[in-house]
Amino acid sequence: MPKFITVTNQKGGVGKTSLAIHIAAYAASVGKKTLLVDMDSQCNATFILTEKAKQDAYCVVDLWDGESSPEFMDTRFGKVKLLPGSESVGSIEKQGLAAGVTALKRLGKTDYDVIVFDSPPAAGVQQFAPLYLGGVMVAPVEPDLLAMQGVVSLLKIWNGLKTRVKLVPGIVINKRVLNSTNQQAVVDLLRSSPFGKYVLSTQLTNRQLVSNAMKRGLAVWEADRTDPAAAAWAGVCQKVLSLDEECDDGKD
């Protein structure tokens, strides 16, 4: 059974796609057979991974056709494979959550070691169905009050879901401006909240290096290994991959 990792938040612009791609790239770099599934109708992950706005091949919506055989694409990011997104993925909403979970469970029968879902910020089947597969839920959060509201709403959903499936949360502080006292206050507030124990210790700063690297089809640590951001991004991805294993060991 693959390890499922869902990258999500109920607020846009917090770096979900960048983090999802880096988690997938890191997993592939350490020898894991890795698939990224683009659940967002904006298809940003699909574009970054393939440099194509639209795909004519098998896409995520086709999982809802139980008669078809899933097909996956090569990407610019090493050995990471892609199940492309679709502008019409919103059409699955009317089929309901149960149908969505059934469709995504088909991926559990593949031979991938790690499957990473890049989900949209809007609440619905596209965001919730991957969470019902269990595994790891990663919530990147920009340290401002509006972003905090998004992650708190998401964690309330997780709190109700954790009795049904094993789903380990991890909160990643992203786009951190280190000399911002306002951001530091939000970080302190988050760490002192009931969800503080799920906040990863490493923070990701707001760096142009990240977008520049992805434009070149590279992870941050491949673009410039000497930059401090390289170690930070690799460390966060490594931690995310081990979150459910640490839970099995009885750790927070």
Which helices and strands, and how do they pair?
Blueprint: E1 3-7, H1 16-29, E2 34-38, H2 44-50, E3 73-74, E4 81-83, H3 97-105, E5 114-118, H4 125-131, E6 135-141, H5 145-161, E7 167-173, H6 181-191, H7 208-215, H8 220-223, H9 228-248
Parallel strand pairs: 1-5, 1-6, 2-4, 2-5, 6-7
Antiparallel strand pairs: 3-4
Helix pairs in contact: 1-9, 3-4
Walk me through what this model shows.
The protein has 252 residues and is α/β, with parallel strands linked by helices. It is built from nine helices and seven strands. The chain has a single domain, classed as P-loop containing nucleotide triphosphate hydrolases (Rossmann fold, 3-Layer(aba) Sandwich). The longest helix has 21 residues, at 228-248. The protein starts with a strand and ends with a helix. The model has no long low-confidence stretch (mean pLDDT 90). It comes from Acidithiobacillus montserratensis. This is ParA family protein.
Features:
252 residues; alpha/beta; Rossmann fold; seven-stranded mixed beta sheet; 39% helix; 13% strand
| Broad structural category | alpha/beta
Low-confidence stretches: none
How far apart the termini lie comes to: 23 Å
- The overall strand count is 7
Question: Would you identify the CATH architecture?
Answer: 3-Layer(aba) Sandwich
Strand order of the main beta sheet, please? 3-4-2-5-1-6-7
Instruction: Name the helix and strand elements from N-terminus to C-terminus, one letter apiece.
Output: EHEHEEHEHEHEHHHH
